[in-house]
Amino acid sequence: MKISxxxxxxxxxxxxxxxxxxxxxxxxxxxxxxSLGGGAILKQKSALLxxxxxxxxxxxxxxxxxxxxxxxxxxxxxxxxxxxxxxxQPTGCPPAIYAACADIVVGTEGKTANEVADAxxxxxxxxx
Length: 128
What we know:
Layout lengths: L2 H8 L1 H16 L16 H10 L3 E4 L2 H7 L10 H7 L8 H7 L2 E4 L5 H14 L2
Parallel strand pairs: 1-2
Helix pairs in contact: 1-2, 2-3
């Protein structure tokens, strides 16, 4: 089922529970890369598991850049009330949570995907 379908049929709370279980399963696998949505580390247990299991990279973008990058508005932001909130906090997760969880912060503003990937590789290589 697509994320939008889970939100629509089961609600955000059920989606977050499923997401937390998927994060837990992924953290048990060694030697992998995990790409998370903006709210995946809202649950403290998930944030701690991710931090203990991976080098955590926060891809930082301004609200305007993040909104431009989305091909469609995430389901959690589809209502007008949440849409307005997205200008200040596009992912739904407070920046302080990302900052506390991140080992590396890579700015994406005005960079190509290859430039961002190179910056991540440089930063993670420096940590080995």
